[in-house]
Design a protein that fits this description.
alpha+beta; globular; 5-stranded mixed sheet
Length: 526
């Protein structure tokens, strides 16, 4: 018994310590979630107040109906039970009963529908907005563009605070602040008592823009635009989250809206425009290596460190950048990766960043940690890359020397193949075709000879498509091209079990005759 008591006491102490830690870790966040919150978030807009009213009105009506119906039912069962000698009445086709149970529910539904319809219509009325902001969902952050009204022209990315992400990764949240997983580097800033229209869209998968205190929730869908609106009546900080399961980092995609007075908002706009003007870069400017690395470190911390880690080692399925073959390899490969993304969105595209920021972060990665390549990428390189002109070399980029010929050639020109003797290899196809021409056959044979002599790894065949026309047709064409290349490899003696066919990736340039969208890369699996 004494042993059992000791064990029970130990369990109670552990439980008490855990509860003490939990009590420290979870506290109310003004404008956000609260401990033991049973009701909707405190409203700060008229729409949210109306939603509260509807919520309680519906709840009360349903509760009254529930109590009334079950009270009559239980009373009837108890009062007219057989043990007391009660006999069931024998009647049917009562017009009175049928009229009553038809009209009464109809009246109740109408009484519920009238105020609900009024609020629903008001929610969708985005006209006469004082300020219009586009909210773009990315995996996993938000981009804000001020389209009209005071602040027009401002644009920035809002990302979860790096320190809080690292705290989450560590598993130790005993010292978590009140705004844990809600703190961002750049909140959405709006003026009080102004109608703010929010246009939502997405860059990759479906997200949802939701701020409970405002009573708004709107899906952000790639290729589509939706809108909602709010008018905050109280200055303060208000929080929300992406409300659509958008991938493994879904929990790290917060929304922070800062509502300022009209005077403070005007000051904020003026300050932000000064910062934007100061940040505006001449893409033709030639930077020094140290300056690019310094700037790239900041860009990396704000956009890349959450997944690849500050030490560049990656985590789980996230590839390491320190010692990465892509980072250490041809510059064009990494430029394609940051512009177009990789692995069907697992690595998002970063084309929303400026050319200078992209050049800086690529240069930083190529010259940080153990990556001491000395390679430098200038903003002008990314200006050219957005137009489809990538530096020479690399399994994901056409050689610069071949580009003019490709531009001058007609759409049905013969395919071009280019690679070094030991890879990576590229196979280029004619527009709309999946058959290998003579030069493409020769290049695929060279790849087969190389991989036949190097039997120590798997091979990835990565097809590419452009962003024009039918996505399904383009993807199917890319698949057929990859299969055609795989057949050449297997016919040459390369084992089929070594070949991995990946889903096609979309090329940023997206022109119908863009040669970068008519290729299959043969590279080593990483």
């Amino acid at each position: 018994m004494k042993s059992i008591s000791n064990k029970l006491a130990s369990m109670l102490l552990v439980t008490g310590a855990w509860m003490g830690t939990a009590a420290h870790a979870v506290q109310d966040l003004p404008g956000g979630p609260a401990v033991k919150q049973l009701n909707l978030a405190p409203p700060v807009t008229r729409i949210a107040e109306e939603q509260h009213f509807l919520h309680w009105m519906m709840l009360i009506i349903c509760t009254v109906i529930f109590i009334a119906v079950f009270a009559v039912m239980f009373y009837s069962i108890w009062k007219h039970r057989k043990s007391k000698g009660a006999k069931a009445a024998n009647f049917h086709e009562s017009v009175t009963v049928e009229v009553v149970w038809t009209i009464v529910p109809f009246i109740i539904v109408i009484l519920m529908a009238l105020p609900a319809t009024k609020v629903l219509v008001a929610q969708k009325d985005t006209t006469n907005a004082d300020l219009t902001v586009k909210a773009t969902g990315y995996q996993w952050k938000w981009g804000y563009d001020y389209l009209s009204g005071e602040g027009e022209g401002l644009s920035y990315i809002s990302t979860l605070d790096t320190a809080q992400r690292q705290m989450s990764n560590s598993g130790d949240v005993s010292q978590a602040p009140n705004d844990y997983l809600f703190k961002v580097d750049n909140p959405l800033v709006v003026p009080v008592n102004k109608k703010v229209r929010v246009i939502t869209t997405a860059n990759d998968v479906i997200h949802a823009f939701m701020v409970p205190a405002f009573g708004i929730k709107q899906d952000a869908i790639p290729g589509f635009v939706r809108d909602t609106w709010f008018r905050a009546e109280k200055v303060g900080d208000y929080y929300g989250q992406c409300a659509e399961l958008c991938g493994k980092e879904h929990a790290y995609m917060p929304i922070h809206v800062k509502v300022l007075s009209a005077e403070d908002y005007s000051k904020w706009v003026a300050e932000e425009k000064k910062k934007a003007e100061a940040k505006k870069d001449d893409p033709s400017k030639v930077w020094a290596l140290t300056d690019l690395v310094t700037r790239g470190e900041k860009v990396y911390a704000a956009n890349c460190a959450a997944c690849h880690q500050a030490n560049g080692k990656g985590a789980g399925p996230i590839k390491a950048l320190d010692g990465s073959p892509v980072v250490l390899g041809p510059t064009a490969d990494m430029m394609h990766a940051v512009l177009e993304g990789r692995a069907n969105g697992a690595m998002p595209a970063w084309k929303q960043l400026s050319d200078t920021d992209l050049a800086a972060v690529v240069t930083f990665a190529k010259n940080h940690w153990s990556n001491k390549t000395g390679t430098m990428v200038q903003p002008a390189d990314f200006v050219a890359a957005r137009g489809g002109k990538f530096p020479a070399g690399g399994g994901a980029a056409a050689p610069a020397a071949a580009a003019p010929a490709a531009d001058a050639a007609p759409a049905a020109a013969a395919p071009v193949a280019a690679a070094s003797a030991n890879g990576p290899f590229q196979i280029f196809f004619e527009t709309g075709k999946s058959e290998l021409g003579p030069e493409a056959q020769a290049e695929a044979k060279r790849a087969a000879d190389y991989w036949g002599a190097h039997k120590d790894g798997k091979i990835v065949l990565s097809g590419f498509v452009d962003s024009t026309g039918s996505a399904d047709v383009n993807a199917e064409l890319a698949k057929k091209r990859a299969q055609a290349v795989a057949k050449v490899l297997t016919d040459s003696g390369v084992g089929a079990d070594r070949i991995e066919l990946r889903k096609p990736e979309t090329v940023t340039a997206g022109a119908g005759d863009d040669r970068q969208a008519r290729r299959v890369d043969i590279i080593a699996a990483q």
